[in-house]
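Course exercise 7: structure representation. Students receive a sequence record and must write out the corresponding structure in token form. The form below is the worked example handed out in class, using NADPH--hemoprotein reductase (730 residues). Read each field label carefully; the graders check that inputs and outputs are placed in the correct fields and that the protein name is recorded exactly as given.

STUDENT ID: A-19
EXERCISE PROTEIN: NADPH--hemoprotein reductase
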Amino acid sequence: MVSSVWRFAHLTLAILSFTFLIIASVTGVILAVDAVNEKIPAYKNASFNELSLAQTLPNLREVYPEILELSVDHNQFVSIEGFDEEGNDFKFIADPVSGKKKADLIVKSEFIQWVTALHRSLFLHETGRFIVGIVSFLLMLITVSGIALVLKHQQGFKKFFGKINREFFAQYFHIATGRLLLLPILIIALTGTFLFLIRFDVIQKEEFVSNEIQNSEAKELPLKDFPVFKEIYLKDVVKIEFPFADDPEEFFKIKLKDKELLVNQLTGQIVSETKYPITAVLETLSLDLHTGRTNSVWAILLAITSLNILFFIYSGFVITFKRKAVKISNKFKSHEAEYIILVGSEKGSTLHFADKLLKQLLANGKKAYVTNLNNYTVFKNAQQFIIFTSTYGSGEAPANANKFEKLFAKIQQPNKVTFSVVGFGSTQYKDFCVFAYNVHKLFVDTSWANPLLNVYTVNDKSANEFVLWVNDWSKASGISLSNTPAVYQQKKPKLKSFKVIEKTAVSSNNSTFQITLKPNNRTTFQSGDLLAIYPLKDQTERLYSVAKIKNNIHLVVKLHENGLGSQFLYNLSLNDTLQAVVIKNESFHFPKKASKVIMIANGTGIAPFLGLIKENKSKIPVYLYAGFRNQNDTTNAYKIFLEEEIKQKKLTDFHFAFSRENQSEYVMNSIEHNADLFAEILENNGIIMICGSLNMQKDVEQVLNRICLEKNNMSLDFYKENNQIKTDCY
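STUDENT ANSWER:
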């Protein structure tokens, strides 16, 4: 709950102030660079820090008898003002020892003056200064809330600078740069806020109090022998006002960084001392720190920090939009659903897996419903609960699950149900998936829930690890789900452009068509990868297995009357352009190390195998078993293609089974007829690859399991665990 408050505060403050922060950051970078540029000219005396007033003022007064004022700016350039021997006034940057002119006074360019006005007041005068001050205060609150979130994310101060679990670019660098630039950001915010409070008298300025100093009579001394001048160095001086030389009632008025002195021009005695109040000292310090005007290194750091604030704004909103990117659309209402998917997620990433599961359950004709754990209630028709949850901080519930445990204690389900819990997290943290185990125990301790499986855990959103749960859940529930890891991957590449260069037509006895796409840009892919298309130009996605032939993408698609993806592809014409994404499916690439390979497909599942066979440059023995409904022009074209590959020794043999021909046969029958070959290949570390429908996969695996038990005294699970069974089914 606390983390949710901090996150809400962090986001709300950012939304309220981001426009003004962009202006302040951009102008801040420009002004910081200008502060560095000001120090580039060599107007500062090489021995400036060691020069006392006793070493400089006598020379200057000798060269310029009518000198009126000496000033030291934030660049430590010394400027003098007065009248020359001819009565003409002068004002320039001078060498503090010789008095020689070094340059005219530096005047800010019109552009820098314009940027300064925008930075300080937005061209709105006092109203603008007030707004900028409020934004500085908001930046301070954003920084504080950010610190709280990082502490929570990293599990305390000890791990504040520890390794960050990288989910995506914006998230990682938002935290990483935030930690590194924490102090500069906080200083910018604090000093800006303090200057605002001082200017608008929220913090009252204290009055200056002068102390008159009673001195005994003393003899006149030359300036170089004044004790006070020997003790004061130029580096501590802000301004010195010179007295008229012939008026003993006139004094040197010396303004230092923390006080002001009046010094008798004849005896060198201090007549009066005025110490600046702490508010005045802090105001000057705040201005120096906020602008970087006194130190080039600090100014450069301020410029980097200002640039990074712009990145914070960008990355912060990317994180927010990613969290809200997955939107669940439930087809059934909660009281109608039989399969209830409860999600606990801090950043929304776990919802992605729930969405993939929901769509497949609906496709299987199941009444399924997804909601957050905080929305737990009575589900009167529930048969099974599936819980996907992350863990936050030190074993705590994520943001949308922080009320679940209290709700669960009050609400019982009316029917007996089964349940399965999958925990998501990172093994980098010691409390990996603790909340998932807590949820599992809550269900176990009830009288109405029985576990379908033990707790499964997924590290760093690994699709491969998630598929382990998918396989076991499918087996336990009897519901087929896609076990292709690429289907569940969250990181999708950017859309790329493809040109239609070839397409076949469907016929009365053949509803399958082939389409060939040429990448318009450089695209790396292999046979077995997936092509994702977006027919509605939204998040609605359709995936197709890819065959790589002559560096083009070759798809085999069955045209469905109301099929969203198949109709979209079929309606494309030659030379049309398609926007799509190639998704790496490394688990279904051609095996690099295998004694022999058997490929099993039905229908359009043959597509990736056409390319994989082409890629068999090592000429490993490969056998293809494929099942179709009818023999037609398409299957005849496959035969011609495959016979050529046999000649090239990239394919050893192939078998086609036709279920609706006179001699009806299914691919499972072909496998049974060649049981010895399958058993021998698995026994000798060969690989079996299966692509097609989930129902076909289920039937094929039953046949293979019988063969393995009869011939090898091993179950098919043994070979699955040995990574000898690869599947891409849907």
